[in-house]
Write a structure and sequence with these properties.
The protein is built from 5 helices and 7 strands, in the order βαβαβαβαβαββ. By secondary structure, the protein is an alpha/beta fold. A 7-stranded mixed β-sheet has the order 3-2-4-1-6-7-5. The chain starts with a strand and ends in a 6-residue tail after the last strand.
Length: about 170
């Protein structure tokens, strides 16, 4: 059994005209959302064995705020190729992971995250699928996917069960 957590970066700031997209930080609302997701992960015991994070500042900052809410440090790798990556690039990254990693988290961007989730999910919580994931993958949202496979290399389109889809605005 393999689990994949897809965390889209939280709401970013647009208050600095001309700032390079890669260097945009989080808005105050985004900082609050990231902390909510961190608390959710801690409460549910959903600590990843490995985190692959985009190098964009808004993704890095999201992960820092999430990690600050967790009971232990995370193993993190920052990857330039996750910055605005498409679903095929991310699927290759997922399939290439060491099988000692049971729960993997990706922290990155849309539209790639939405497309990857829709590509992978074949079953799961019907309400979460219908009212959430199918419509959009908002900033700060977390998709929890489970694969009934022994090896990451076996992850295939339509092979995931959507365990949950959390949006920060729906959390306390």
């Amino acid at each position: 059994m393999r689990e994949l957590l897809l965390l889209r970066h939280a709401k970013s700031a647009w208050d600095v005209p001309g700032l390079d997209d890669h260097a945009r930080d989080l808005a105050p609302r985004g900082r609050k959302a990231a902390k909510k997701i961190g608390r959710l992960l801690a409460e549910k015991g959903l600590l990843p064995d490995l985190v692959l994070c985009s190098t964009a500042l808004r993704a890095v900052r999201t992960l820092e705020l999430v990690a600050a809410e967790l009971p232990r440090p995370l193993e993190v790798r920052h990857l330039e190729e996750l910055y605005l990556a498409g679903e095929e690039t991310m699927l290759k990254l997922v399939r290439a992971q060491d099988d000692r990693v049971r729960r993997l988290m990706l922290v990155g961007h849309d539209p790639g995250f939405h497309r990857l989730a829709l590509l992978l999910v074949g079953a799961g919580d019907a309400v979460a699928l219908r009212t959430g994931l199918v419509q959009k993958f908002p900033t700060g949202a977390l998709a929890h996917l489970r694969f009934p496979v022994a090896h990451w290399a076996e992850v295939a389109p339509g092979g995931a069960q959507l365990v949950a889809f959390h949006k920060p605005r729906e959390l306390d």
